[in-house]
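FAQ: What does the model actually see?

It sees only this:
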Amino acid sequence: MIDATQEFTFAAQKKEMPMKYIILILIMVQSAMAQPTLQKTWVGRNNDYIRIRKDTIDYFKKYEYLHIPYSLEADTMKVPVRFWKSQGMPWEGLALSFRIKSLTRDSLMLVLEFGDDKIPGMDYERRFIDSALTYDPKLTFDSLYFSASECFGNCPSLQIAISSTGAVRFRGRTDTEPFHGCYAGTLPQTWLGQLNEILRCGRIGEIPEDLGRTIDAPVYKLRITLNGKTKTISGTPFPAYDWPLLDILLDAYKVAELTKVDTVVFVVN
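And it is asked to produce this:
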């Protein structure tokens, strides 16, 4: 025989159960969100980056993207790679071990475990941050000058200057058909919006001013003013993390409204 008090208690429990489940679910979701994960894009020094997925890792090496599997054993990532120990001594099929020294929601530190046979000058400790943190909403574009040299293949050789209003001066040298010679014109506001978003994500301040030189590759020069501060970058290759910036600048003349002129002047220093 169930009395009135017991009936009230059972009814209350029935009403409370859904709320208890909701609270439990919220706690589980919050706990899962708080757990750091490897599976994201990480950006490091000089805008080197790696993109880690569930079973594969992407990174950039010698003008090629490497999309390869990796294994995770305790706190160590094992990644099969190819690289040169010294001139004429290639190491093929070597599995590198990266110990996860620290991992938070915002940062990752990897230590290359290489035993006693270390290569002089190699960076054994690598720090990365979550690429989502690179976005700078306060960054504003003022102006830029960009040039690209020829290469042994079909590389567009050009010079271009762009202002914050979209005014553009352009000189096409080779592989810039149909625009060879000097031009002046404007770029669409939509293009400027895309450029601003790329710059806000691009960590331009972290790109080395001297990129070095590589055989059979175009040499780039970028003189850019952001928030009133000017930075000059020259050489090759551009960090892969900033390839969207390189691509949009190389193709800018294709979307600009250009008019042929006798000459254009660029400030390159």
